[in-house]
Amino acid sequence: MTTEISNNRWGSDRLWNRIAMASGIFAFMICVLLIANYIQLKKSDPVNMTVVTRLVDKLRDNPADSLLRSDIRTLDLLSRKAYFTSQWQIRIGGYLLLAAVALMIISIQIVDYRRKINPVLSESGEDETMLHRKKARTWIVSGGAIILLIAFIFAVLSSNNLSGDFIKMSKGTAPDNTATEVSATPETAIPKPDTISGKSTPPIKADSSATAFVKVTANDNYPNFRGNGGTGLASKKNIPVSWDGVTGQKQLWKTAIPLPGYNSPVIWGDKVFVTGASKEKQEIYCIDRNSGKILWTTVIGTGNKTATIKDETGYSAPTAVTDGSNVYAIFPTGDIAAVDMNGNKVWERDLGLPKNYYGHSSSLMLYKENILVQFDQTTAPKLLALSAKTGKTAWSTDRQVKVSWSSPIVVNTGKRAEVILVAEPFVASYNPANGQELWKIECISGEVGPSLAYSNGIVFSVNDYSKLSAIKLGQQPTILWENNDFLSDIPSPVANDKYLFLATSYGTVVCYDALSGQKYWEHDFSNNIFSSPILAEGKVYLLDRTGVMHIFKAEKEFSLVGEPKLGESSACTPAFTNGRIYLRGDKNLYCFGE
Q: Domain locations in the chain?
């Protein structure tokens, strides 16, 4: 009987020992592959970034070379595929490794358990092979744990290496830290900053954009970045589709702005506001909307803080906001202030130097009596609401995100008002009255520059080397569809009830079905694009880096309306009033209209 039990036990143990051995060998092979993958990545990256960098350098010297631009775009698409494939391989390899190790441990535990309840004893009363097996197991487990740890470290290094290289690539920086502006800035103006300030076939539905939630109803104001609620929709009429900044055709005025800035104009009544700054000085400018004359200039803060701010981003990237009583402006130094309509300083605060390696670029928004500040930085990111009257903190909500350069949007979903923000890894919504988090969904990665788009209950987020996501709002928001063929690191998308329009910084514009994600068309323009598209009167207005405004119909098929020229380069998103468009170039502010 003892012999029979022993044989049965041995047969069962042999099966589990074989399973443990097979899973151990499989885990070892996965470990070797992960280590080999890291070594291969260090030897040669999957996208040959050196080639792309050289082509970009050539394109900078020959911006009209359409064939060269096409080659760069092809390599860019190939690099995306290589990136996502490599990330998938590392992720799947990690899952398989964990599964194999788990199976091996379970098998060994089963053998141990069976041996304890049914041991084979020698005459001395001890398991004959127990000591030997214990020693062998100790060596196997120790060696396996070391190999597993090494494989895990190399997998993390491989993933970080890929992410780091591709993020640098998306900003136009080679892996060896040699700067090359592939697509320079966010909307504000370059590498990864914000998206600068300011459809729709009228009338705009209550939930298809966001009413600005300031003291503005049916008027001709343009109080914040990217129009209605910051969503890229401009409910203005009779916007011109032709002008020429060189000959002066339809140019009502042109005004030189003393200090540079990548922010966009905001408008209330007969006054237009922009900001400008240098390392030494930060200023708010008020321009007469009819004549273009600078009415007053107000200096904000000291402007001499020790801030690490890239030239491509500049010292005045965020767009201001106005409620008709004051204009509110923030600078990358953390200085924020309210100035009344006559240029008198109402209040001023120092929020502290933002820990942001490109410089703070998020534009301001207003909700009722509070100013909303997306203060995402490397430490203690948060969403702030400051009293418009006093500048005191009304509420502050901590955010579990990484640094970003996007700007908030404020929307009316039909049921409630929401302020929605995007930064790795979440698109998150908050109650603008008290800062309470309403929902969040994990769907984005990387250094996020583009702001969100919103229409018809759907939020759209995008970032380069991440993905484009459509989020359907409701009791529990869900991902409606995703795509990673065309992505943006600078321009923000824009949408109406039917279509989503996405511009890439290298000059390609894509039209998707907003509900299904089906791509209707793509069109390649000949220059980089840092400005964000704006929908107005059923047309999309999209300014490229050279100052050419590409105007096309917001329709299922691409139809170009016009391509008027500014006459100087620009990275800023336009602003609108009825019958007029306001464009900020690198040096001047322009107004075109009848």
A: 2-171, 228-593
Tell me the whole-structure pTM to 2 decimals.
0.71
Give the model confidence (pLDDT) of 319-358 as tens digits.
Answer: 999 999 999 999 999 999 999 999 999 999 999 988 887 8
DSSP 492: P
Please name which of 367, 466, 487, 486 lies closest in space to residue 420, comparing C-alpha atoms: 367
- Cα–Cα distance between 315 and 332 in angstroms, integer? 6
Confidence of residue 492 (pLDDT cuts 50, 70, 90): very high
Burial grade of 438 (CB within 10 A; 0-12, 13-18, 19 or more): middle
390-404, pLDDT tens digit by residue?
Answer: 999 999 999 999 999
State the architecture of 228-593 in CATH terms: 7 Propeller (2.130)
Buried b or exposed e, range 101-137, using 16+ CB within 10 angstroms: bebbeebbebbeeebeeeeeeeeeeebeeeeebeeee
For residues 572-581, one letter each, b for 16 or more C-beta atoms within 10 angstroms of the residue's C-beta and e for the rest, the string is: bbbbbbeebb
Edge to edge, the sheet with strand 468-472 lists 453-455, 458-461, 468-472, 478-483
**Which of 97, 79, 61, 71 shows the shortest CA–CA distance to 180?**
61
3-state secondary structure of 19: helix
Determine contact, residues 10/17, Cβ cutoff 8 Å: no
DSSP element (H, E) containing 69: helix 66-117
332 touches 351 (CB < 8 A): no
Residue 159 has pLDDT above 90, yes or no: no
Q: Where are the beta strands (DSSP E) in 527-573?
A: 534-536, 539-543, 549-553, 560-562
Model confidence pLDDT, tens digit, residues 378-389: 889 999 999 999
How far apart are alpha carbons 53 and 179 in whole angstroms? 9
CA distance 170 to 496: 27
Strands ordered across the beta sheet of 494-495: 494-495, 499-503, 508-513, 519-524
Cα angle vertex 123, ends 121, 126, to 5°? 40
Ramachandran region, residue 63 (left: φ > 0; alpha: ψ -120 to 50; beta: rest): alpha
Q: Which amino acid is at 319?
A: T
Distance set, CA 486 to CA 48, 240, 351, 505, 514 (Å): 19, 30, 36, 10, 15
How high does pLDDT run on average in the chain? Answer: 80
